[in-house]
Amino acid sequence: MGWGEGAKKLHIHIITDRQSLLVTLTFAILNNMPGVIAAPYVLLGMCQTAHSNRVPGATVHLERKFSIAIILLFILPLYFFIFIKNKRICPKSSSGWVSKLPRSYPLIGSSLAIIANKGRYSQWFAEILSQCPTRTFVFHRALGKRQIVTANPSNVQHILKTKFSLYPKGDFFTTTLVDFLGNGISNADGANWKFGRQISSHEFNTKSLRNFVETVVDSELSNRLIPILSDAAANNSVLDLQDILQRFAFDNICKIAFGFDPEYLSPSLPQPAFAAAFEDAVRISSERFGYIFPATWKLKRALNLGSEKQLKQAISQTREFAQNIVKEKKARTKRQVLSRNRQSSFKDHEFRPFR
């Protein structure tokens, strides 16, 4: 006999007790999957009935089968959601485009796709976005959390400029990056962000700073980046362009923000300790977003283990370097003020306190 059209036949045996009936029926159903999917609550009811009518003298082998059957009852829903749903074909839209979005499952979201693409997130997202008509998609994370990923210029302008107040970074973002970025403008929302923006916008809108930035970038471009690229082209050598551009940006930021030139893009392409620590801090902080359950990296941080221990050391080195530069800059400014006072023609006794 068979269950449903096209289903495989179930072999009939003479069974003398209900417990054996449960075991035999369960294994028969499993052997015929996915042609037959029994409702878990039906099997659970049979299980309770069998347990209340146990046959005296049942063998250990039968008891073991019964335990396995109980475990399998909880595997059935998981089987249905993961394997059956995984075989579903995404329907075509009116434009004929077939969805290539990461599959999302109950509770775990697109965690399976995250694991499968570990180490190539940027390329993976670029591949998905290139296939989306709107260059935008919703990414489902574990426990129902969602993120919007977009490469649409109109959406970017809407989020970062037109309606910026409607798109706060949120606790997930700020909590993930707080160890590295602290509570500054890059990792703040609301009033704290507005305060930081007012201060920074005043500084960055001054004509003198804009001229200084242009001078710094032009010097880095003419004296370092172009010569390195020209030399590589002349010698037919291979360069890691991502590394080169990262060094270019790093030198510019250090010179503009700190008045310090790390010479990271010099022809020898050195690896200063501060630059290495900064790169590690950026990389490990970014990797936190890839954890399926954020509690994992938080536990590692609490126990000071693995990558979180390395992140703590990298952040410590980065802050120590920045603090030393600030101290040196303050001391240099103080020396310059004292030097100008000495060179002045005025004498100390000529100055009078304001009354």
UniProtKB/TrEMBL annotation:
Transmembrane segments: 21-46, 66-84
Short name of any one Pfam family annotated for the protein: p450
Region annotated Disordered, chain positions: 332-355
Ranges annotated as biased composition (Basic and acidic residues): 345-355
GO BP term, example: secondary metabolite biosynthetic process
InterPro entries: Cyt_P450, Cyt_P450_sf
Keywords noted in UniProt: Iron, Membrane, Metal-binding, Oxidoreductase, Transmembrane, Transmembrane helix
Gene3D superfamilies in alphabetical order: Cytochrome P450
Segment forming the signal sequence: none
GO molecular function terms listed in the Swiss-Prot or TrEMBL record: heme binding; iron ion binding; monooxygenase activity; oxidoreductase activity, acting on paired donors, with incorporation or reduction of molecular oxygen
Family the UniProt entry places it in: Belongs to the cytochrome P450 family.
Stated name of the protein: Cytochrome P450
Annotated source species: Coptis chinensis
